[in-house]
């Protein structure tokens, strides 16, 4: 029977799976030793004398590790096992030392040389061979009932070079994932996996996995200088192997931790990291070649927000790739925004409590499967934005929290570390290695997965030291202010690095305060004394809250809230904005978009259609969460996703829902074909009020203007009455106006009150303009007109 390590204590994998039967501690299935020509035996033996005289003045030394080294290796606290184990020149020849718990015998094989090592006890084997130079060698390890010929992990030089270590020490390794983590590779001509982890407070680190029965005793890692990085190359370990790091804390206790840089994980609730090697071949060269043709704020951007696990529950990344691109392209959205896909243990967090920052969630497939989904979206002409969560992380004891026994990724001050709202821990943005971990992570998703942009979650919670904290629960910064200077520096570095490295990328801030300069360049200082944060776009949370509050009122009361629909234009050009109707607005009792609207079912749908028409014409990019494009009445639930059955022709009211979806398709079609709606989103010359004070009528009208002055006229009537002959001032240089979109059209489920014929201006001045037109305004509707 093959010896196995003790099964006492918790399984470090946190899985229900059993240890693989019939394997040796090498991780390979037992096999009969292959017949081979016996190597020549040397005069050296496993019991080489400790007193053999050589070259007159040199005296042979004992090859066995000394007591201190033995104790530290057994305890998992040795910082340099390679200095003890492996083959080393010593007086008298070459000392071979091997640490193989559970082995019965170990023989060194070097060419024709075959040397049996002495069993020193506790899994240690040693021998002294009278050789001048250290030979390349392998080990023949005998276990009960089998033997395996393997490489000696402790004969290899480090896999990280001086440049990697310098950049790691400086916190400037912009491709950190290429240095740390687990990487299948060929090192010194031998195939295996190199492991590296940052754990500066650890007394020792060992690699444990399926290849050693989750007992890392025989695989201690070495500490590389003062970087806090531990490294080990394990021959014979390849892609697909499960692993964790067994860390000896400063107090001597041990903890099994998932790899912070793991690029693949087990499917939750299992928590092991998985050795990964990508062999994906991309096909989106044309997309990438043109991605940077125009900056995001001067290009059309209409975003469909998706929670991948629940969009079509049960589908994998590859199955989603067969459906999602076609659906999004049919509706005319330019981008999808994926709620966080990085690995997270609790599905109910929707991905916003991340434990695997470098691994797409294994719930839907492996990393190459996720690449396939992104690739297919790009080939369908659809950009991919991804929610990214650098503000905080959960406290799971197998992940980042007190990773090496002391606060490491989190702030050392408990008041700074604890996030007051979510029971999580905030990153220590002032620590250069932590900042490097996050900046490189942003680069990783965009470079390795071709992500086109990151929507950064919870920026406000990062920027303010007093965020959700009472007096006495926070301390001012060095200038006496409430700004988190470390977080500001991190966000500036992240944005500057990402825009420098990835052409055409865009970053989007979910920031809900009046922080000055969120989308200003990092080198441009504002009135607050700070450089800009460097984001490309910012969610306009003020517009979202104000406009939804207005729409929730009965039309008879809307005149008292008219300013909520016009106030956004007071600050519309202070930042580059996205108008978000996101998942946050259709959960937790907030009701779906259509259910926020007052009135009966017809009026609710009419209100939603009018609101969407207003939103698509308003300066800023658009974002709409899945399910709202067809007026789903129920709140979103991650357990079952959108109510697709509402679109089934067998359902009696399906036409009502299909009509709203048809409107969204037409909004996107006209929007993308009309530069006036997006070319000058961030410049005051792209917008002009026609009438913004018609509160008694519940009417809003404005012009959107292209760079050459070509206009689009948008008119919204948020009253449930038809307004015939409604006069609006217009430019006199337009000979006639043509209605290009009307949310009350019959095909959308409306009453079909439309303006079918071109509308010619009259020379009567109105609203401060030299000419005017008279329109029929349908009830609870938005109308768009362009020059005929």
Question: Any overview of this molecule?
Answer:
The structure is a single chain. The chain has 788 residues and is an alpha+beta fold. It contains 16 helices and 37 strands. It has an 8-stranded parallel beta barrel. Strand 31 and strand 32 (699-705) form a beta hairpin. Helix 5 (317-331) packs parallel to helix 6, helix 8 (432-448) runs parallel beside helix 10 and helix 15 (601-617) packs parallel to helix 16 (654-672).
Any chance you could write out the topology, listing elements then pairs?
Blueprint: E1 53-54, E2 58-59, H1 67-75, E3 86-90, E4 93-99, E5 105-110, E6 113-116, E7 118-121, E8 124-129, E9 138-143, E10 146-151, H2 162-170, E11 181-187, E12 190-198, E13 204-209, E14 222-224, E15 229-235, E16 242-248, E17 254-257, E18 273-274, H3 285-290, E19 302-306, H4 308-311, H5 317-331, E20 335-338, E21 342-343, E22 356-360, H6 367-379, E23 383-388, E24 392-393, H7 414-417, E25 425-426, H8 432-448, E26 453-456, H9 459-463, H10 485-501, E27 506-509, E28 537-539, H11 541-552, H12 555-558, H13 563-566, E29 577-581, H14 593-596, H15 601-617, E30 621-625, H16 654-672, E31 687-694, E32 699-705, E33 711-717, E34 723-730, E35 737-742, E36 771-777, E37 781-787
Parallel strand pairs: 19-20, 19-30, 20-23, 23-26, 26-27, 27-28, 28-29, 29-30
Antiparallel strand pairs: 1-2, 3-4, 4-8, 5-6, 5-9, 7-8, 9-10, 11-12, 12-15, 13-16, 14-15, 16-17, 16-18, 21-22, 24-25, 31-32, 32-33, 33-37, 34-36, 35-37
Helix pairs in contact: 5-6, 8-10, 15-16
EC number: 2.4.1.18
Family: Belongs to the glycosyl hydrolase 13 family. GlgB subfamily.
InterPro entries: A-amylase/branching_C, Branching_enzy, GH, GH13_cat_dom, GlgB, GlgB_N, GlgB_N_E_set_prok, Glyco_hydro_13_N
């Amino acid at each position: 029977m093959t010896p196995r390590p003790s099964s006492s204590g918790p399984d470090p994998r946190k899985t229900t799976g059993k240890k693989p039967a019939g394997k040796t501690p090498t991780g390979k299935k037992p096999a009969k030793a292959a017949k081979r020509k016996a190597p020549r035996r040397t005069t050296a033996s496993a019991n080489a004398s400790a007193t053999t005289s050589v070259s007159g003045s040199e005296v042979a030394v004992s090859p066995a590790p000394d007591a201190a080294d033995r104790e530290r290796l057994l305890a998992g606290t040795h910082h340099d096992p390679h200095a003890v184990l492996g083959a080393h020149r010593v007086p008298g020849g070459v000392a071979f030392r091997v640490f193989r718990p559970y082995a019965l015998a170990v023989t060194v094989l070097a060419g024709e040389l075959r040397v049996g090592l002495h069993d020193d006890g506790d899994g240690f084997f040693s021998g002294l061979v009278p050789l001048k130079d250290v030979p390349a060698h392998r080990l023949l390890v005998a276990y009960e009932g089998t033997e395996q010929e393997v490489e000696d992990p402790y004969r290899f030089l480090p896999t990280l070079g001086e440049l990697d270590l310098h950049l790691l020490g400086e916190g400037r390794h912009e491709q950190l994932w290429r240095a740390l983590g687990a990487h299948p590779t060929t090192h010194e001509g031998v195939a295996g996996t190199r492991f590296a982890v940052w754990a500066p407070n650890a007394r020792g680190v060992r690699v444990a996995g399926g290849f050693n029965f989750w007992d890392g005793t025989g695989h201690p890692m070495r500490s590389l200088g003062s970087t806090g990085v531990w490294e080990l190359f394990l021959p014979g370990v390849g892609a697909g192997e499960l692993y964790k790091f067994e860390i000896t804390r400063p107090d001597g206790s041990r903890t099994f931790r998932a790899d912070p840089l793991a690029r693949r994980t087990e499917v939750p609730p299992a928590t092991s990291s998985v050795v990964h090697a990508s062999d994906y071949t991309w096909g989106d060269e044309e997309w990438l070649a043109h991605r940077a043709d125009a900056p995001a704020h001067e290009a059309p951007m209409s975003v469909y927000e998706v929670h991948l696990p629940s969009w079509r529950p049960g589908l994998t990344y590859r199955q989603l790739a067969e459906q999602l691109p076609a659906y999004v392209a049919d509706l005319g959205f330019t981008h999808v925004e994926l709620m966080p896909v990085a690995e997270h243990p609790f599905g109910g967090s929707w991905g916003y409590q991340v434990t695997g920052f470098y691994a797409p969630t294994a719930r839907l497939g492996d990393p190459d499967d996720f690449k396939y989904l992104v690739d297919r979206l790009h080939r369908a002409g659809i950009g991919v934005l991804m929610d990214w969560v650098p503000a905080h992380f959960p406290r799971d004891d197998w992940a980042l929290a007190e990773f090496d026994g002391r606060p490491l990724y989190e702030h050392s001050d408990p008041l700074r570390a604890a996030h007051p709202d979510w029971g999580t821990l905030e990153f220590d943005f002032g620590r250069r290695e932590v900042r490097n971990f996050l900046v490189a992570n942003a680069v990783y998703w965009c470079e390795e997965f071709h992500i086109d942009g990151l929507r950064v979650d919870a920026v406000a919670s990062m920027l303010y030291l007093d965020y959700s904290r009472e007096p006495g629960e926070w301390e001012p910064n060095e200038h006496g202010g409430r700004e988190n200077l470390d977080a500001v520096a991190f966000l500036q570095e992240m944005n500057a690095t990402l825009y420098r490295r990835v052409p055409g990328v865009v970053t989007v801030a979910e920031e809900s305060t009046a922080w000055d300069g969120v989308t200003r360049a990092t080198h441009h200082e504002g009135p607050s004394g700070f450089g800009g944060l460097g984001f490309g776009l910012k969610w306009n949370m003020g517009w979202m809250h104000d406009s939804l509050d207005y729409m929730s009122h009965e039309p008879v009361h809307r005149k008292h809230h008219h300013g909520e629909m016009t106030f956004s234009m007071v600050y519309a050009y202070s930042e580059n904005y996205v108008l978000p109707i996101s998942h946050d607005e259709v959960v937790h009792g907030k009701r779906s978009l259509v259910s926020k609207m007052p009135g009966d079912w017809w009026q609710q749908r009419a209100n939603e259609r009018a609101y969407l028409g207003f939103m698509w014409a308003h300066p800023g990019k658009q974002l709409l969460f899945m399910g709202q494009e067809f007026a789903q009445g129920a709140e979103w639930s991650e357990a079952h996703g959108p109510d697709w059955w509402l679109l089934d022709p067998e359902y009696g009211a399906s036409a009502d829902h299909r009509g709203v979806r048809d409107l969204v398709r037409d909004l996107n079609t006209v929007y993308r074909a009309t530069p006036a709606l997006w070319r000058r989103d961030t410049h005051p010359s792209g917008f002009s009020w026609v009438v913004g004070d018609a509160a008694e009528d519940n009417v809003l009208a404005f012009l959107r203007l292209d760079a050459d002055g070509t206009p689009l006229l948008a008119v919204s009537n948020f009253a449930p009455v038809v307004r015939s002959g409604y006069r609006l001032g217009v430019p006199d240089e337009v000979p006639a106006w043509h209605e290009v979109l009307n949310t009350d059209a019959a095909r959308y489920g409306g009453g079909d009150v439309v303006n079918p014929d071109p509308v010619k201006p009259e020379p009567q001045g109105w609203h401060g303009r030299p000419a005017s037109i008279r329109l029929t305004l349908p009830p609870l509707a938005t109308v768009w007109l362009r020059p005929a």
